[in-house]
Amino acid sequence: QPVVNDTFLWSVWRWSALYVVGFCVGIVLEYVQHYLHTWATEQMMQRVRRKFISAVLARNSLDFDMSTGELSNRLSSHIDRMRDGLGDKLGMCVCCISTFIVSSTISFILDWQTTLLMAWAGPIYILNSILVPKLSEKSTIRALAISEEANGISEESILNVKTVASCNGQKQM
């Protein structure tokens, strides 16, 4: 018959429950963080897109004679690059650094043995950090489809500025 130490078992259950609760809270907070980073990035990109279109419309219509799709191509490529840099990559970097600092601090405050216990959770955390953006990809794809439709409308408007100017309709515009 095994020797049972009730104090030890309750201590193990308590710490295990704390880690499970912490893990669940971490998953929820990471999802919220990813959502907020994506939302903030989209808001910034909308603001940049509006300012770019305003600047383009304020220019002389002769500047549009370069090529037909150059402006819209430049707009979409630069905005996509900015979105990639600000969105997922920055969010993942902030998330990983803050998690490393907080978990290391908590581990060393409690005791060094806890650090060994948390070491096995690293691969699970990395897997979670990879899966959350993949799972939210559907909403991103849907937002991109709506954005592409809006880009098509704005592209058509920008490309028709030359026609409006040639018909002396810029005062009604």
From TrEMBL:
* Name the UniProt record assigns to this protein: ABC transmembrane type-1 domain-containing protein
List GO molecular-function terms, semicolon-separated: ABC-type transporter activity; ATP binding
Q: Where are the transmembrane segments?
A: 12-32, 90-110, 116-132
Instruction: Give the signal peptide as a residue range, or say none if absent.
Output: none
Membrane topology annotation: Multi-pass membrane protein
Cross-referenced Pfam families: ABC_membrane
Please indicate which superkingdom the organism of origin belongs to.
Eukaryota
Compartment(s) of residence: Membrane
Query: What PROSITE patterns is this protein classified in?
Result: ABC_TM1F
An example Gene Ontology cellular component term from the record?
Answer: plasma membrane
Q: Where is the ABC transmembrane type-1 domain?
A: 1-173
Q: What is its main location?
A: membrane
Query: InterPro entries, alphabetically?
Result: ABC1_TM_dom, ABC1_TM_sf, Type_1_exporter
Q: What Gene3D superfamilies does the annotation carry?
A: ABC transporter type 1, transmembrane domain
The opening ranks of the lineage are: Eukaryota, Metazoa, Ecdysozoa, Nematoda, Chromadorea
Q: Which UniProt keywords apply?
A: Membrane, Transmembrane, Transmembrane helix
